[in-house]
Amino acid sequence: MTDRGRRRAFWKRLPRWVYWTTGAAISFIGAFTAMIVAEQFPLEQRLPFWIAGTAIIFTGLWVLSMGTKSRLDKSEQQERGGD
Amino acid sequence: MGEIDFLQIFQGVATLADSEPKIMIGRVVLIATGLLLIYLGKKGVLEALIMIPMGVGMATINAAVMFVTPKMALPGDVDPATGLAKGTLFLNPLISEGEKWIDVLQIQWLQPVYSFTFSNGLIACLVFMGIGSLLDVGFVMARPFKSMFIALCGELGTVIAFPLAILMGLPLADAAATATIGGADGPMILFAALMLSEDLFVPITVVAYLYLGLTYGGYPFLIKAMVPRRIRGLKMPVEHTHAITSGEKLVFAVVAATALCLLFPVAAPLFMSLFVGVIIRESGLNHYQELFSGPLLYGATFFLGLLLGVLCEASIILKPEVLILLVIGIVALTFSGIGGLLGGYVLYFWYKRKGINYNPVIGIAAVSCVPTTAKVAQKTVSEVTPDAIIMPHALGASISGVITSAIFAAVLITMVRASGGGAF
Question: What average pLDDT score do residues B193-219 get?
């Protein structure tokens, strides 16, 4: 297995709750930070911060969903092994 | 025996004859439009669940105008010579004084439903709860990046419609409310329009629902114009269908709802309503889910359609801005469709480099309007390749589209509110 493959396998071995807490933390921190930072600027300059906040929330949800994807991949591998 | 005044007996006709020509023609046209909506709803051309009650409301309200006492009349609609005014026994949406409102509430039969569910956005939230209880966020979780990326592209119409509406002369708040039509989500448009545009929320919502009803017929042409047949028929790679657990979906919904409410508190009622439906579904609260997805959703949809129709009384809806709304509405929905398909193309070329098929038609589902656009996408692909299944991908994009539509509405409401506009 290549280095890259090993690194990928390591990430996929993590338990689901790690993805969940990391994803939730990214989403909450992103939303909170974007809100705080946006309020420091006048209205016409806030839009980029809201969009950045939304992008970070989506990134957090993506990380959270990776927990599901890793479980699905694992069960798929187990099924293939059992064939 | 005194002389019988037939115009007093047949007041529907009398008020028609007594109106200025614009209102008279408007009432006749709106009665005909209401009947047409019922017909098209029955035929399945338009969404029957909303269009049939809306058509009934539109036809009857314009037929049922009568002479009423001043306290029942619309503001400024009292004839100083006779002391009479024209109005209906349905509802009075423009009422604001407390004492008059109490009187009207006891006489006009739809006023309680309007005042306590419609004018405060509750009915939009109830529909959202029902929709949430039917949504399976697993479709998003199985392909989060793709779904969310094309959902963002599917908001192109909102982004284009907002400056266009300002260029066409609408005030900032009305322009923002109209731009939300690009989000293609009826309850969300109603909610945003209620918050932003006190004067135009009725025409904005009616135009939005009429156009949304037409997406099923119009979007296939857009798909065929933008996606050549050989690409349209692309099969997606076979996916292994492992169930995503309820716990996983629950975590997703809770995090998404809380984070989005944190960033956009003005749209919190929408986010909360949508995700509470998802959470109830995934928590296994079957009795609540049956309530939300059945009586609550259908009851709210029925009254939403009926009230939208009843609000289409000629003197309320006939405003010069309606023509602008008709133009912006179609531009917004067309560009949202184009944006979604362009997003689909980006993914098509991205995955093509990796040797994986991605059907760009999925992009049309990103325009929200769940599940209609997803069905349109699947139907258009099936016409070329009958065994190509893109529905799970399309539903993922569509559900993400609902979330991004609410986010864009939230951004617009926050901007307008911070600039001192809006109806609250």
Answer: 85
Query: Which domain range does residue B183 map to?
Result: 122-418
Whether residue B337 is contained in a domain is answered as: yes
Reported ipTM: the value is 0.75
**Among all residues of chain B, which has the CA nearest to that of A53?**
B263
* Residue of A59, A68, A76 best to disrupt the B interface, most CBs of B under 10 A: A68
Same domain, B111 and B126: no
pLDDT at A82: 42
Is residue B138 located within the same domain as residue B111?
no
| B415 with A35: Cβ contact below 8 A | no
Q: Which residues in chain B touch residue A34, judged by CB atoms under 8 angstroms apart?
A: 263
**What per-residue confidence (pLDDT) applies to B303?**
94
Contacts of residues B189-192 at CB distance under 8 Å and 24 or more positions apart, as own/partner, are B189/B409, B190/B121, B190/B123, B190/B124, B190/B304, B191/B121, B191/B124, B191/B125, B191/B267, B191/B269, B191/B270, B191/B409, B192/B409, B192/B412, B192/B413
For residue B162, pLDDT beyond 70 = yes
The number of domains in chain A is 1
Q: Is B163 on the interface with A (CB under 8 A)?
A: no
CB contact under 8 A, B407 and A60: no
> Nearest CA to CA, how far is A82 from chain B (Å)?
15
